[in-house]
Amino acid sequence: MKKTIRSHLSPSASARAVRPLAPVLACCGFLALFAGCANEPESHVLSAPPPPTPTRAVMTTTTTTTPVAVLTPAVVAGNPAYVTTTTPVVSTVVVTEAPPALQQEIVLAQPSTNHVWLAGYWSWRDSRYVWMPGRWELPPSSGSVWVTPRWEQQGNAYKFTEGYWK
């Protein structure tokens, strides 16, 4: 069985009953629409721009000192004479990037009492630092002394002087 529900009001009467509620319904809809936006502040995600790509402003200058002959007075076989000596050839490098800290090394057993330990150091090769490990070496002559390679800061640059036997 089919039931039909009938309104007591005529169509024109129901329209008249809703008409005073129209502004109220419109305001409620408006408030519902913008209620979420009005309660929270605008959200903006800000981030710093990415850092620039690091540039390695490294300037290197290599200078080589050529051997210089020096006459040194001496006595040879009881007669005064002059002995010609030369200064060693020393290479110098200047770099604008600080060298890394020295590495710890394990010193192996001394091969003989004549061998001298030459400690490892950082060298500059192919536009980068390269570790040169320490080693045992025989001096070129008795009484020779090893002058250790070294980095010295000079303003914003670092000067490297190769090691040599003196």
Keywords:
single chain, 166 residues, alpha+beta, 4-stranded antiparallel β-sheet, 2 helices
Can you walk me through this structure?
The chain has 166 residues and is of the alpha+beta class. The protein has a domain at 92-165. Helix content is 16%, strand content 34%. A 4-stranded antiparallel sheet has the order 1-4-11-10, with no helix packed on it. The protein has a two-stranded antiparallel ribbon with strand order 2-3. The N and C termini lie far apart (123 Å). The mean pLDDT is 74.
Helix content: 10-25%
The CA-CA distance between the termini, in Å, is: 123 Å
Number of helical regions: 2
Number of strands: 12
The largest sheet has its strands arranged as 1-4-11-10
Q: Cα-atom Rg, whole angstroms? A: 45 Å
**Poorly predicted segments:** none
- The structural class is alpha+beta
The string of secondary-structure elements, in order, is: HHEEEEEEEEEEEE
In round numbers, the mean pLDDT is 74
How would you sum up this structure in a few lines?
By secondary structure, the protein is of the alpha+beta class. It has helices at 11-18, 22-39, and strands spanning 61-65, 69-76, 79-86, 90-95, 116-118, 121-125, 128-132, 135-137, 146-147, 150-154, 157-161, 164-165.
SSE map:
Elements: H1 11-18, H2 22-39, E1 61-65, E2 69-76, E3 79-86, E4 90-95, E5 116-118, E6 121-125, E7 128-132, E8 135-137, E9 146-147, E10 150-154, E11 157-161, E12 164-165
Antiparallel strand pairs: 1-4, 2-3, 4-11, 5-8, 6-7, 9-12, 10-11
